[in-house]
Amino acid sequence: MAYYFEDKPTSISEPRKIKVMISEERFVFLTDNDVFSKKGLDFGTRTMLESLDLNNIDGDILDFGCGYGPIGIFLAYHHKKVDMVDINERALSLSKQNAILNQVDVNIFKSNIYDKVTKKYDYIITNPPIRVGKTILNSILFGAKQYLKSRGHLIFVVHKNQGAKTLIKNLECEYEVNVIRKNKGFFVIDCQNH
Asked: Which CATH code of 3.30.360.10, 3.40.50.150, 3.40.50.2000, 3.40.50.720 fits the domain covering 2-193?
């Protein structure tokens, strides 16, 4: 869990390569200690990515909390314009290497939540760090509003046991909320900015 908070992980670096299929497409990712889901693409992220209607997702996209990069790299592979942010410098380094490995063009930079984000996006897409606690989680999900264009979308995935239904109810105060998909307890949620 330190990778949610620390910009400079202190664990020994032991990079490994993993092969991942997403929507019948092959990707190779370098992962390491102190990054989320280092052993392979997690089920929540996979469910979200395979639920996206890529024909309708366009414009500027922010992959928030990019980790080693599967969300942003998958979207860039589909010719989307993607910025990727994380606080974890090891994750950012891996994302940069993975963009090269998968031959995609993305813009990757360090940001503590949105502190270095300077523009508005059509889409912010994330598997948010639920275990950071409500205060930080709310600053991510509700804070996204000021970095979305008018009618822009925040799309994220969360498990029902991690408070999906409560989050939906709370987010309805700020966004038009739709559940895109439910899969084995995971909810893929689309929050459209007013």
From this structure: 3.40.50.150
